[in-house]
Design brief:
By secondary structure, the chain is of the alpha+beta class. The protein has helices spanning about 25-40, 70-80, 135-145, 160-165, 205-220, 225-235; strands at about 1-10, 45, 55-65, 85-95, 105-115, 130, 150, 180-190, 190-200, 250-255. A hairpin with a 2-residue loop joins strand 8 (about 180-190) and strand 9.
Length: about 260
Amino acid sequence: MRNLKLVMAYDGSDFCGWQVQPRAPSSQGTIASAIGRITGEKVLPQGSGRTDAGVHALAQVATFQTESVIPAGNLVIALNDVLPVSIRVLEVSEMPEDFHARKSAKAKTYRYRIYRQPICPPFLAAYVRHYPYRLDLRAMQKAAQLVEGEHDFTSFAAVDPEKNASQAPKGGRTESNLRTVFSSQWRTDPDELVYEVRGNGFLHHMVRNLVGTFLLVGKGTLKACDVSGILQAKDRSRAGATAPACGLYLVSVEY
């Protein structure tokens, strides 16, 4: 058996999320079907984590085992020939037997895009959060820095223990909401405000809930220093609303 690592990009608009669902297209199910068509095997690739419906990926990682002898480079071509254009395999590589897309991951980076111009072009609407109103970027940056380090992120997690457990970092206790954020910052791009966060793992909806809270800081509804209290409260109701999925991207997974 070969243990293969896939790196793929996908447009989350077309999928119900990463995980296979009974009656809806998922990125995991689509990849599994494509592999089956090429190798004749029934496999279910294991991803580095679950992305929700509407969330995009620039470099999602998945692993699966196969008896197929198709060279890795040829498999990239073959998969992209049968996959829909909304999902592309960027790389296939042979890995040691014990390598696992999720369990072996050491860090992930997510990006959230907010379009700032008065009118959002229709071809961008599915890929950004449109918010053209005044925001205090300095306060948002200060608030973002307060979540760096190891914290219990219960206040920023969806009430979904099963999905939170599936995102646990290697060696972490699945029942714990402790995560370490290595960097958390906002930056301005032409026409956009971009949030980028890198950590050892993320709870379900954690990045989108952080963004929703930082937007409250930018609007003046909360002060930047309130974020520390929200973290300590371990209470989801204290944080902001969940930001829309369309602006979120899984940027990279590190091993």
